[in-house]
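Hey, can you fold this one?
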Amino acid sequence: MEVKRRKFQGVLNILSFNRHYYVFGLAVLLILFVSHYLLKWPDLLFWIVVSAFLYGLIMPLLVSAYVYDFSGYYDLHWMKELIRDQEKIKMIVNINAGFDETSFIIKSKFPRSDLKAFDFYDAKRHTEPAIKRARKVSLVYPDTQQVASGSIPLKDRTVDIVFLLSAAHEIRSHEEKVLFLKECYRFCKPGGKVLMVEHLRDFPNFLAFSVGFTHFFSRSVWKNAFQRAGFTSFQETKFTPFMSIFECSP
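Sure. Predicted structure:
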């Protein structure tokens, strides 16, 4: 099945899944304008505050359009340098948090490989409103299995590539991250690898998402989690200033 993305699908997803944030932001702007009219507070202060709110509303959309709609992220060309012998890949696992935009694309890139998709979403643990909305419109890859993050039904050392594409940050607890990555370590073949793509809690993403960058985790947090899970190799490649590709091997 070939899946074609719509124009500006990435930024439209951000607007749809986070509409509570934008409704709140527009309401605050309305209150600011009304209060300025009624209370006559200083123009300079007013426009500084309004500009800050507009920045917080608009910049995430601009960055999301750049990353998800114009950078080629969903073309998966970035993985060619990381997976050179694609014809030797027999088993691929793609793990998501209930919003799967990539399994069909991965399968199209590896038509001869066996691809299994897993969804670790747990309504009690993963409580973000955005991911709840995303699940309602997500494509479902055939035979996708709902799993616990710490228990994935695969045999030891059977998987060549594990994809974690903009999903692992939905696991908020560090201990749960470690348990999840221990599972990935368990079923990853010697010579296999985990490819994880994530925004980071760093300065570029602070500029992009302001306080929203706290939804992501720092490089040191991910490195600690992978090392505690048993991985010996942890390499980062920047994909745009706002996203990192981590290549981790047992």
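Strands lie at 91-96, 114-119, 145-146, 159-165, 188-198, 233-239, 243-249. Let me know if you want another pass with a different chain boundary.
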